[in-house]
Structures are given as structure tokens and as C-alpha cells.
Amino acid sequence: MLCKATEADLEQMVAFRRKTYGGTRQDALDWLCGIVGLDNILILARDPAPGAKPIPAAMIGAVPVECGHHHGVWLCCMATDPSLQGRGLMPKLLATCLRAFSAKGCDFAVAAPQSTRAAKAFSQLNFQGRFPLRIIRKPIEHNLWARAEFDNLTVRKLIDTRMRYQPACIALPESSMNTMITRLYRRGVFTTEGPLLILAGAGSGKTTVLVNRIANIIRFGRAYGSKEVSRPVAQSDLEQLRTAIMCGQPVPQSLMPLMSVAPARPWNVLAITFTNKAAGELKERLKAMLGDTMGGDVFASTFHSACVRILRRDAERIGFPKSFTIYDSDDQQRVIKQIYKELMIDDKFLPVKSAISQISGYKDKLLSAKDVAAEAPRDTKAALISKIYTAYSNRLRTAGAMDFDDLIFHTVQMLKTDAEAREYYQQKFRYVVVDEYQDTSVAQFHLVRLLAGGSNNVCVVGDDDQSIYKFRGATIENILNFEKVFAGAKTIRLEQNYRSTSNILNAANSVIKNNNGRKGKTLWTQNGDGDKVHHYTAASEQDEASHVAEVIGQNLKNGASLKDHAVLYRMNAQSNPIETYFARAGIPYRIVGGQRFFDRKEVKDINSYMAVVVNPRDDVRLRRIINEPARKIGATTIDKIGELAAANGVPMMEIIREASSYPALGRAASALNAFYSMYRELCDLSVTLPLDEFAGEVIRKTGYEAMLKAQKEEGETRLENLGQLISSVKTYAEQNGEDATLSGFLEEVALIADLDSYDEDADSVTLMTMHSAKGLEFPYVFIIGMEDGVFPGDLARYSEEEMEEERRLCYVGITRAKKELYLSSSRSRMIFGQTRRNPPSCFLDEIDPNVMDETESPELAYSGGFGAGYGSYSTNVPGGRSGYSGASRGYLNSEYNRGSFGSKYAGGFQSGFASGGHESPNYPGGRHTVQSSSFGAGYGSSRVNHHSGAPVAPAGGGVTTAPAAPARKKAANFAAGDLVDHKVFGRGKVLKVTPVAGDCIVEIQFDRVGIKKTMANYAPLTKLTSEE
Q1: Measuring CA to CA, which residue among 506, 318, 301 is closest to residue 410?
Q2: How far is residue 525 from each of residues 31, 174, 495, 529, measured CA to CA in Å?
Q3: In angstroms, rounded to a whole number, what is the distance separating the alpha carbons of residues 521 and 500?
Q4: Quick one: which of 455, 636, 669, 903 is 20 to 30 A from 477 by CA?
Q5: Are 727 and 571 in contact (CB under 8 A)?
Q6: Residue 639: which region, alpha, beta or left (left: phi > 0; alpha: psi -120 to 50)?
Q7: What is the 3-state secondary structure (H, E, C) of 450-500?
Q8: Which residues 6+ apart lie within 8 Å of 26 measured at CB?
């Protein structure tokens, strides 16, 4: 019986291939699945016993091929069971195969028999004339299409030369010697006509394919496999070509036309990337291959830059001047605010940024203001946004301006409605190439489809498994549905990874395979197994940070550099414990794609509020926050307050307190009185509440929380940062016990900021979110916070779509690692001001246990077990209106100067201020202890069972045992000349010790890394007792 092979036959076919040809299992898989393809294999099988599978007696690979306008078949992978040889099975199978292909319109066949017996089988066939079969007695993997029978012998030799020369021009990735991979890369380069999807896995060298493909289109056009020539070919032409190729010399320019068929001009190729940096790198690589002039003329740009160039030529077609202005985000907000004022819209009801986000979403969906106005609004806000959109569009058109969303929106609308413009650009861009296609939006998809609609020569490169920018409007359906949208599209999968080890890739494969919305591929490498993936279970986020530093230190001792290490996290707020530990320990680091934690605006604002409570003389910080959030206290009013303060020799806060007494402040007196009342309330709370609770109340009572909540998605991220600030305050209070003060916390923040000063080019550890890490790679990668509720986030529990997005993000994080990957989870994590006990991430369960080793913190060995376990996680975060809470030791101790600040000024500040904080009338100064109050009070409170003294678990929090308090800071005593050992930097000598804020900064000369500064009480330092 004769049948086609299927996936169900794979193992049987692998065994049969190895039985007849020998070699390894991987060799057999390369041939059957990669070079030939299972669906191209025919099996002649013996009749099986009832219920059994057919047993192969012989097999043959029949791969359809094209040569110009000729269609043929490549016969390969032929094998007969050794016990059945000599019975005529192969000639019978060959004859059946060739008749079938002849009936399909094929007009040639080509084969390369590898044995005398196989050659004899071919000779027994008599298809000459009607169906010519060309027998080649040598391997022909990369030039087989040139072996068809052509009438002109010289032309055939030229084509043969061309077929040999073009592959030699491809710069394949290093170590890409595998036959199957070479074939796939070349197929990606030489498939120049029609729609093509290159599905490129992480680290697979997709940019190399992209660059080579563009260079090939410009150099040779569609010459590969074509029998077309531009002029008659002389024998001397062949000799010159062969001499140049054999000697490694450039082909004479006069002969290049013979080597190409319809090559594209550089400006006929449109290459679109997502960043200016990527576009620049693409051009530089093309210049290196094609020369500065030809490579520089390729139209490589971002989507927005390409649209600007199109609109600068044709904007008048849609009613805009060619010299239109491009509005940035500030200009956009300014226009929207003017519209708010005219329409009398309350920005508290509908924040400006929320309206801008909605309008941006409409434009990405290609909905104009008229389209939106024509739809019935679903609610009051939708109706308002429609009015704003209409007014905004009219305002921009009147001003002859466009915002960034308009650039793509108007280009697409013009190409849709203006046939002349569409035809011009479709003829101009004969080839359209798009990188990172998985990140395209709806509008960008339509732009690509319209530009490529003429020739239909569109090539997109991307990886559906790395589609992680849904929050920016990216639509994974664009890449998943490519073959449906572009008829006749071909797909090439690049699965060999040149970056990572097998264990790292197997971990990534085992996670991503759980996604349903993907096209499917499996990464592999020839880099070897490498170390197993490491998973560390920490006791707390501080223990996690210490572990990261310890591993980095060990790697440094083994010859690595700090810059070889990257710490990745799901949210920006997670960087704080790592930053704090690194700063105290003197480990240089840099943040990529974000600000350092204490430099973030919302964090600096709240710290400024607390600084003004501590020190009412701090006019600099007062100026920062007096109108943040907006309180109708404008810059003119603030300047007047400053002038009055200078004239009277008092702080600005004193002028604000007596605002009603100054006629110059009459119009702003009401707003200033409200601000001062709020300030006085915060001063009182600073004395009565624990530090973390007080910080939470600052966020709430100042209106900062309400402002950020109104900002929707952007505000949520900033609220997360403030929640992490609460965690920092709480950690500080727990580590310092009775010595904790508000002024002490602010001093520590200032010290960390000073120690953090760093050189961007210096050797340093990289910290970033996993979204920012896409496209980067590091020898050593740490992914922290691998817990459900953190990564994946809470929303993923309720949406399969969100879970798949998180899983893709995990895949991206894992595949950043080249040499070693370290994952860590924590039994107890203080985040957003709440101590949580989330279970380990579900992604850890999905990783094949054979590729991962497990270790846990020594602290957990002494914790007496984990109680009832992790418990259930609740999205109803306790903490009253604030949205933050957590366990707290409930200690706040502030020292106040007994002398009244107000006594210096007539009638001023009767209750007095002190350097340690505000002195409330109920607490006339000195040191006191305040017990933590109930959850409803604010961000950071904890409940206590007053009968037992044990903490009560937050509702839904699943906390069954009290988390161990962070270790109190140790008393450290160092002096100049001491020899020390640092966990990360190794051995060193103390140069200088500077006491400050209950600690001291130690300056050390290390043997390996030079001079570093660390905080003595927190740095992983050990004093050595001798020179040894």
C-alpha cells in the first residue's frame, strides 16, 4: 500500500531513516522535518496485521520546486528496507511518484542518487522527453533548482554560476553550519516575491535575515532560481565570472546585470522598524554590505517617520499644509485644556489624560471624530469625549497641525480614499519589509496592507511569542492572521537560538507552550545544556536582594563583570528593595527605561510633603508641592509669598499661615488657608501615627491619591510606586526600631541618593522591567518576584487573554539570559505597603523540573514551618480608602527640640516646630511610642489581637503566621586602615569613615574594583583580623 507520512508516523520514520542511512536521531529529524518535510514523504508499506500500523518497506521524499516558470520535483531521502532490497520496490515507488507529479503539470525532476543501486533504479525509468529526469551524481542541496534542462547550455551555466554565487553573499549567523538552518535562512533571503512571514524566535538572528534579504533584493532581484538573463551570454562572460568568484574578487560591474533579474532600486525598498535606533542600525549594516550610497538610499524608518515623509509630500490632498506642525504631548495637553475651559468640563470628572488616551484609541482604530459622533454614546463621559474629540480635530485642522497619532491616521485615510496617491506609493515601494510585526497596531496593519497592495511583496518579521505591548495598542492578531489576510503567503520558522543554553531555552519552551494563541515553534540551540535554571525561595524581599548581590559577587570572583548582570522585574515599584540594598552595599547599578525609585516624581512629591512637616523652613520643597495636586495657587501667588517672606525675614510657611493679613494675597487667601489647614493636620498626624501610616495619610489627605486614581492606567503605576514608598518607610521603621524618626527616614533617602550618583558608562548592574528588556541580552539574568499576584499579576487570574500576555512576558524575560538564569520568589513580600504571602508563580510550575534546581533561604529553615501555607490571595486589599496596608510593628519615635520655633516670630507658630517633626500640643516634645491603629486609618496599619498580642490576618490576605521582622541593623565599627571583605567586591582596605545619620559611610579601596562607598550598617562587609 502507498500512503503519505503524517506526524503520527514520525517516530517510525525516524527509526526507518536511521536503519537505512545511519546517523543520529537529530540527523534524521533534520532531514525528515526540516529539509524535506513530513508532508512531502511517500511510504510504500507492507500490509499490516489487523489493528497494527503499516510497516515501511520503502520511502521517498518528493519536494515541489520551481525554476523560473517551470515546476518540478526534487526526489530525495530514498530508502528501502535492507531485507527487501533487490525486489524492485524503489523503481515501482519512483514510477508512481513521477506519474503523479507529471499529472500535476510538473515538467522536470531532479535527483542526486547516493549509491550505485539507487542510480540503477533511476536508469530503469523511461520518462525522457515527456518528463525529463536529470540525474546528478553529487550533493545538490543549495543549487538544485539550477539543474533543470534548459535549451541554451551557456545560459544554464550562467544560472548555475548565479546560483552558486548568491548564497556566498549571505552573512549567516555564527555557527549556522547546520544544513536545515542554512536552508531556512537562505529561503528567507531568496523568497523575494509575494507575501512572506518570517516567524523568528528569540535570539534566532532575524535581523541578519532581514538585512541580507534587502541586500539581495537590491543586488540580484529575483535572480535566484530564475532562467531569465538581460542579454546574450558569451563564454568570456562565464570565464570572468568564475575567475572573480574563485579568487574572491568582486564581480565586474559590467557583468552584474547578468547576475541579477529585475533588481530593486534602494528607494524601492521600504523597511519599517519600531525605533529610530533600530532603523539606524539597519541602515549601517546595509551600508556595510552595499556601500554608503546604495545602503544609505534604502528607505528605513519608523512608522511615524515614514508617514511624515509621505505627508510632507501629499498633506494638501487631505486639507493640511505641507508645512504642518507636529504637536508633542505637551502641546496636545495644552489644546485639550483650552477645550475643557471652553466646554466647562471638570477635569476631576474626566481627567485630561484620560480623554487624550480615549482619543488616541479611536485614531488607532481609524475612527474619525465624525465616526465617533455618529455613534450613540454609552454614557455621559463617552458623550463628553466625543465633543472633545470633535473640537480637538477642528482645532488641529485650523492650526495646520497633527499629533503623533494623526501621522499614521491621516496617512492611512489618504491612501484609502485617494487612488492616485495610493498607486504612486505602491509603485514606489515595490518591496515592504516590517520588523517586530507582532507589535503592530490596527492602524499600522492597515498602513502596511495599503502600501504593499500593489506588488504584494510584503515581508514581515516577528515572533508572536514576544507580543507583550498590548497596553500600547499592539494587536497579536496581526501576526496570527497574516496568512489569512495576505493570500498565498509563505511562512518560514527560524527556531535555532544563538544566544542561550539548552536549559534556558527548554525553560522558555515549557512555559510558552501553554499559550493557545500562538502559531507554534520550539527554540533549540547548539550551545550545549549549560547550567540549570536556578530558583531561589527567599524569606523576604530584603533576603531576595541579598541573594542577588551574593550571586553577583560569586560571578565577579569567577571573572564576570557587573555589566554582565541584569535584574528584571514585572513592575517598576519592585526595584526599590534592590536599589536600596545595592546603594547601601555600594554596588553600582543603572535603571533602563525608567527613573530611579526616589527620583520618580510622585515619590519626590510625597517625600517633599514629609520634609516640610519635618522642617517648615524648607521653602524649596514647599514650592514643589504647594500646588501639587492643583489647588489654584499659581506661580504668581507663590512668587508673591516668596517676596513677602524675604521682606519679613520669615519662612514662606509663616506667610501662608497669615495669608489673610496680606492684601497682595487676597485673591488666593482662601486656597492658602485650605492648604495650611491640611498642613497643620499632617503635622498633628506625624506625632500620633506610626511612620508608615503617616506616610499613607500624607498620600490621601494631600489629594495625591485622588489625583492619581483619576489618571486611570498611568495613575495606577504611580500609585504602585507610592505603595512601595510606604513599604520603604515601614521597612525603615522595623529595621531601626525605637530609633526610627521621620527625619531619620528622609536623611536615609538623601544618603542613598548621594551614594547612588553614578557614571552611565561605568561597570554596573542593569535594573529594568521585562517590558524594557525586550531586544536585550545578558550573560546573567535575575527575574525577581516570581509569585502569583506579582508575576503573573492579579488581572491574569480572571482573563485567559491577560494570562497569555503575562506568559509571553515571562518567555521574553527568560530568553534574555545567555549563560545563567536566576529566578526568585519570596515567602513574604512587602509591596504597595502590604505584607503579602502569595504562592509561587504558576510559571514556576510550568517549567520542566529537569532543567531547574531549587534552593531556599537559610532563614526559612528556622521559621518553624510555613503555618497553613500561602493561603488565598484577595484582590480586596485591606487598608481603608487608601488601598494600601500591611503588618506593622507599630513604632514611631521622633525627637523634637524643646525650643519653640514660633517664639522667634510675633504671633507665629504657637505650638512650635522642631527638627525632628511637628510638636503637637498633645505631645509637647521628647520621645514617645504610638501603637498602630485600625486598617481604616490609612495605608499602613495592622490589627492586633489585644488578648494574645498576635497580628490578625488581613481579610482575604491568607496570612496565617506572622512574618518575621526584618533584621535590625547591626552596629558596625570600622576605622581607616581596617581590612575588610565585601560579599560582592571581595577584599579591600578602609580609607575613610564618615559618621552620618546614625550610620557611617565607609570609603574602601578594593583590590579588584577600585574605590567604593558603602553604608557600614547595611553593606555586606566583614572585618578581617589579619593580613591573611
Answers
A1: 318
A2: 17, 12, 8, 9
A3: 16
A4: 455
A5: no
A6: alpha
A7: HHCCCCCCEEEEECHHHCCCHHHCCCCHHHHCHHHHCCCCEEEEECECCCC
A8: none
Tell me the sheet residues that pair with 65.
Answer: 72
CA distances from 135 to 63, 118, 128, 157 (A): 16, 11, 12, 16
Q: Per-residue pLDDT tens for 13-70?
A: 888 888 887 777 767 776 676 566 677 788 888 776 666 677 888 888 887 766 555 6
For 813, the grid coordinates are 524575560
User: SS3 helix, strand, coil % of the chain, rounded to 5?
Assistant: 45, 15, 35
Q: CA 451, 453, 459, 462 torsion: positive or negative?
A: positive
Core vs surface per residue 458-469: b (16+ CB within 10 A) or e? bbbbbbbbbbbb
Which residues make Cβ contacts (< 8 Å) with residue 178, sequence separation at least 6? 30, 496, 526
Residue 577 makes CB contacts below 8 A (sequence gap 6+) with 541, 542, 544, 545, 727, 731
* Cα–Cα dist 403/411, whole Å: 13
| Euclidean distance between CA atoms 289 and 283, whole angstroms | 10
Distances (CA, A) of 49 to 13, 46, 212: 19, 9, 53
Give whole-number Cα distances, 430 to 268, 317, 330, 457, in Å: 5, 23, 38, 7
* H helix runs in 22-152, sequence order: 25-29, 89-103, 116-123
Q: Which residues contact 451 (CB under 8 A, 6 or more apart)?
A: 270, 415, 425, 426, 429, 432
How far is Cα 305 from Cα 290, in angstroms, rounded to an integer?
23
- Other Cβ atoms less than 10 A from the Cβ of 784: the count is 29
pLDDT average per 10 residues of sequence, the chain (1028 residues): 76 82 73 69 76 78 66 76 81 78 72 59 49 42 31 50 56 43 69 91 84 88 79 76 69 80 90 86 88 88 90 92 84 90 88 91 94 91 94 90 92 95 94 94 95 92 92 90 92 89 95 93 90 95 92 91 94 87 85 75 90 84 89 89 89 90 87 92 89 91 90 79 86 80 77 48 84 90 95 89 95 96 93 82 95 92 49 33 30 29 35 36 34 33 35 36 46 80 84 74 82 74 71
Catalytic residue positions? 206-207, 435-436, 466, 816
Other C-beta atoms lying within 10 Å of the C-beta of residue 421: 19
Tell me the torsion sign for CA atoms 807, 809, 811, 813: negative
Helix axes 742-755, 601-614, angle to 10 degrees: 140
Task: Give the integer Cα–Cα distance in Å for 358 and 781.
Answer: 37
Rounded CA separation 584/581 (Å): 5
Amino acid present at 894: S
Output the CA torsion sign for 88, 94, 97, 101.
negative
Contact 736, 908 (CB under 8 A): no
Q: Is residue 827 within 8 Å of residue 860, measured between CB atoms?
A: yes
C-alpha cell at 525: 540551540
Kindly report the three-state secondary structure assignment for every residue of 233-299. Answer: CCHHHHHHHHHHHHCCCCCCHHHHHHHCECCCCHHHEEEEECCHHHHHHHHHHHHHHHCHHHHHCCE
Task: Write phi, then psi, for 241 (nearest 5 degrees).
Answer: -65, -50
- Is the Cβ–Cβ distance between 884 and 693 less than 8 Å? no
- What are the angstrom distances between the C-alpha of 1026 and each of 45, 592, 664, 979, 992? 80, 41, 70, 7, 19
Q: Which three cell numbers stand for residue 166?
A: 548568491
Instruction: Answer whether the bond into residue 377 is a cis peptide, omega within 30°.
Output: no
Give the Cα separation of 877 and 884 in Å (integer).
7
The structure's pTM equals 0.64
Here the contacts of 375-378 (C-beta below 8 Å, separation 24 or greater) are none
To the nearest 10 degrees (0 to 180), the angle between helices 691-701 and 601-614 is 110
Which residue type occupies 155?
A: V
**What does each C-alpha distance from 997 to 20, 897, 984, 1017 come to in angstroms?**
79, 17, 25, 11
